Amino acid sequence: MAPRKKKTVEFNFPHPMDNDVLVGHGDTLQSFMDAWNNRETHPIHPVWMLTGPRGIGKATLAYKIAKMVYGNVGDFFIIDLDRNLDKDGKLKPDGKSISVFTVRAMIERMQMSSMSGQWRVILIDAVDELNTASSNAILKLLEEPPAKTLFLLVVHQLSNVLPTVRSRARVEKMRPLSISQLRELCIKFLPEEDVSTETLKLANGSFGKIANLKMSGGDEIYDALLELLNNKYADPDDVMNMAKKIAVAPELYPIVLDAVAYFGLADLYPQITHAIANMVRLNLEPETAIFKMIMEIKKCL
Questions:
Q1: 3-state secondary structure 209-234
Q2: What is the pLDDT of residues 195-213, one digit of tens each?
Q3: What residues does each domain of the chain span?
């Protein structure tokens, strides 16, 4: 049987560096602005950690702050997977973690830039993606931050950050976006798309998740899954057809869990979570495994 083609749609979502649209997080931005505007009388904390779920605008806010601070006059250093380096100093953008070679190269460039007297910004997106060696290299830098240097650390999961790194930062916890804020972003970046209320709820306050769902077609599959589960006349063949649609890509598997949450089946959540983990870990046949999960959900409705 020929492999099914995954739905792909072209959307032009700007990189956070190029995105001038910040929706929400006015409180975090105001906290920074208050500190920045009073830096002459009250020295600003050199390390700001922007933490919260993926896709809510943390990097967009970090770049907005960075552009204001260095003002195209100072220096701006970015550490992320797109600029990841290997031991030979060559780009390795397909890496899963940010190497220590990337951090060391940034430190060397930063040391050479210290003569200008202007503010320097170091933006790390994200701290979660630093490996142990690169985390320790950053920690050494944070222990004695250079003068007129601002660190902006994007963090998706605070528990993944070394306590010693966290203790040296001012932690700003950013909240998920509201439904109305998500709608505002959809109007801006998905003007031709019909984004359902269920998809907005599914996103859990993350526009990044909506973008991923749209690009994979996951939003339509999720709506179809809810319709199937609500249909008391759906038979095993219908369930298997749905399982086949979800099985085409691992990033779609979590929508089964989202359906469990939608119907408020809290007792079933651990079982389905374990089943998905086993499916990936043991390389089980996804269609059959997902079929069993959906049937378990139907039994509880």
A1: HHHHHHHHCHHHHHHHHHHHHHCCCC
A2: 888 889 888 899 998 988 8
A3: 24-173, 179-299
